[in-house]
Structures are given as structure tokens and as C-alpha cells.
């Protein structure tokens, strides 16, 4: 008994074991609900048919060569070598091939066409959804741009000085009125401290900016969510804010309103500065006039009466 005479049947029985495992694997998958696609199910049927054909052929010739090697009775080989028995694996190959072609023509191709149509329809639906999503996004962007433009127009057209500053007191944005007041170019104002932007010489609490570098934050040095006048500030200290306007130190009374804005998670302060110097001067003049009238009225030696004609009976 030669080595290859024993090796040949041994290889066949290894093939038999492998093809039994493969066939069992295909059959198990076909019986589960995990296979959703029709094409994949059809492919598994084809592979199972081919696995069965190969397994039968391996069994036939495995028994053939095992008998020749003397591991099975020689009568097995004599039985398998008969022409009518040799015909069985050959006709089985033909039947398997016809069955596979039949499945390909009647199952695979129609399912492939159907699956292709379904995928094309799915792609078309998804494409339309993406188009709508893009259109909606563009509309939102246009609305945001239009909204921002409206805010910019309102920001620039307001008669008050509006300044948007960050938590460090540096200017993030300033409206047209503020640019006019500063006498500088807007691009040259952004990023600077409020006191530097407005040429602040003295803050409302009386501190001189030249002696106190921290004062360069004025008029930003105000409490958030607050409204006060510089003539009598929230620190209860009297005094106007002094600015360098056209090279001349000018003391102004201002109404300062501050509000906190959350922009992209960063705290910003919106300052609204209104020049109320004329109003203050008018109020001071009216007060002086009242004092003067009272002094004149009280200095007359005779008795004077004032009657309200609407209340007099």
C-alpha cells in the first residue's frame, strides 16, 4: 500500500467533512429570518445546490478510493465502478447545473431588476429629501442674513451711541453714531478698550485715566443690567465724564444703559450712551430760575397771595 494510495481517500473524507459543514451552514441560514434580501436568499439556494452536488461527488469518489486502498471492502469499488453507477454523479451534475440556470433565469434576474428599481427609487426619494433639506437650509440662511441685516440697520440707525463689548471691556461692534462721536474709523475702533475708543479723560467716578490704567475701560466700567446717569452714578459719586473731542476736553452728562447678551456662549455687554448734557443744563437752569423766583418772591416786604383761579370759589 503506497502513501498516495492512502492519502487520496483521506483527502476525500476531509472534503466530505468540509462540504457537510458548508451545506449545513447554508441550510441553517435559509431557515432563519436574518436573510432579508431576495437576491441573497436566492444566492444561498444556489450555493446550497452546488454544495450538495459537491458533497455527493466527494462521497462517491471517497468511497471509491477508500475501497481501492483496502479500507473498505473491494466490493464497494466493484459496485461503484459499474457504468450505471458512474452515471449517477454525472447526471447529478447536469441536474444541479440546470437547476441553477433555472433559478438564475426565473428568480435571480427578475429579483435583480426589482432590487435595482427599488434602489433607484430609494435614491430618488433620498435625493428629493436632500434637495428639500438644502432648500430649507438656504431659506434659513437667507432669513438669518435678512434678520442680521435688519438688526444691523437698527443698530446703526439708532440715535444713541451703541457699543457691544466683551467681558474684557473691548469693543466688538459699534454703531454709526458711536463712530461719529469717536471721530475715528470703525475698523480702528474694534478690539480696543472703551476708554481708548472714546478718548476718555475722566470716568464718571472721578478717577483720572492718566493715573489709573484700569480706567481705560471707562465708560465700560458699569454694572450689567443697569441704567444710570453720570451726573449721579450708582456709586453715588458726583461728576461728569470728560472726553477729548476735537482736541478739547469736554465734560458730558450721559445716560448709560447696559444689558447682558449671550452670543455663542460668550457674555457680551451692550452699552447705550445718550448725551443728556443739554437736558441736565436745562434742568439746572430751571432749578436756578425757581431759586431766583423764590428769592425775589420772599424779598418783597408786603403780603402777596397767589390764587389758582380754577380752584378759587
Present the secondary structure layout:
Elements: H1 3-30, H2 38-68, H3 74-80, H4 83-157, E1 161-166, E2 171-174, H5 176-182, H6 194-197, E3 200-202, E4 226-229, E5 241-245, E6 248-252, E7 254-263, E8 266-275, H7 277-299
Antiparallel strand pairs: 1-2, 1-8, 3-5, 4-7, 5-6, 7-8
Helix pairs in contact: 1-2, 2-3, 2-4
Account of the 3D structure:
- The protein is of the alpha+beta class and 313 residues long.
- The chain has two domains: 3-135; 158-295, 2-Layer Sandwich (Beta-Lactamase).
- It contains seven helices and eight strands; from the N terminus they run H-H-H-H-E-E-H-H-E-E-E-E-E-E-H.
- The protein has a five-stranded antiparallel β-sheet with strand order 2-1-8-7-4. A three-stranded antiparallel β-sheet has the order 3-5-6.
- Helix 2 packs across helix 3.
- It is rod-shaped, with a radius of gyration of 49 Å.
- 17% of the residues are buried.
- The model is unreliable at 201-224 and 232-238 (pLDDT under 50).
Amino acid at each position: 500500500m503506497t502513501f498516495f494510495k492512502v492519502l487520496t481517500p483521506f483527502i476525500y473524507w476531509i472534503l466530505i467533512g468540509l462540504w457537510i459543514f458548508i451545506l449545513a451552514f447554508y441550510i441553517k441560514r435559509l431557515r432563519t429570518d436574518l436573510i432579508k434580501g431576495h437576491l441573497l436568499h436566492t444566492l444561498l439556494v444556489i450555493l446550497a445546490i452546488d454544495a450538495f452536488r459537491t458533497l455527493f461527488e466527494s462521497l462517491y469518489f471517497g468511497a471509491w478510493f477508500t475501497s481501492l486502498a483496502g479500507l473498505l471492502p473491494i466490493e464497494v469499488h466493484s459496485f461503484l465502478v459499474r457504468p450505471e453507477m458512474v452515471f449517477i454523479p454525472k447526471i447529478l451534475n447536469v441536474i444541479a447545473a440546470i437547476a441553477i440556470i433555472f433559478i438564475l433565469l426565473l428568480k435571480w434576474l427578475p429579483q435583480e431588476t426589482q432590487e435595482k428599481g427599488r434602489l433607484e427609487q430609494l435614491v430618488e426619494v433620498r435625493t428629493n429629501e436632500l434637495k428639500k433639506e438644502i432648500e430649507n437650509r438656504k431659506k434659513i440662511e437667507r432669513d438669518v442674513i435678512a434678520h442680521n441685516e435688519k438688526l444691523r440697520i437698527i443698530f446703526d440707525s439708532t440715535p444713541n451711541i451703541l457699543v457691544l463689548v466683551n467681558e474684557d471691556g473691548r469693543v466688538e461692534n459699534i454703531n454709526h453714531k458711536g463712530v461719529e462721536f469717536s471721530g475715528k474709523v470703525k475698523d480702528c475702533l474694534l478690539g480696543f478698550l472703551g476708554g481708548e475708543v472714546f478718548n476718555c479723560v475722566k470716568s464718571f467716578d472721578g478717577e483720572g485715566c492718566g493715573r489709573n490704567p484700569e480706567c481705560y475701560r471707562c465708560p465700560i466700567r458699569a454694572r450689567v443690567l443697569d441704567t444710570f446717569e453720570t451726573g449721579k452714578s450708582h456709586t453715588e459719586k458726583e461728576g461728569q465724564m470728560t472726553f477729548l473731542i476735537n482736541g478739547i476736553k469736554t465734560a458730558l452728562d450721559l445716560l448709560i444703559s447696559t444689558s447682558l447678551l449671550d452670543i455663542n456662549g460668550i457674555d457680551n455687554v451692550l452699552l447705550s450712551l445718550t448725551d443728556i448734557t443739554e437736558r441736565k443744563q436745562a434742568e439746572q437752569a430751571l432749578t436756578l430760575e425757581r431759586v431766583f423766583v423764590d428769592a425775589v418772591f420772599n424779598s418783597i416786604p408786603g403780603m402777596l397771595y397767589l390764587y389758582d383761579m380754577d380752584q378759587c370759589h
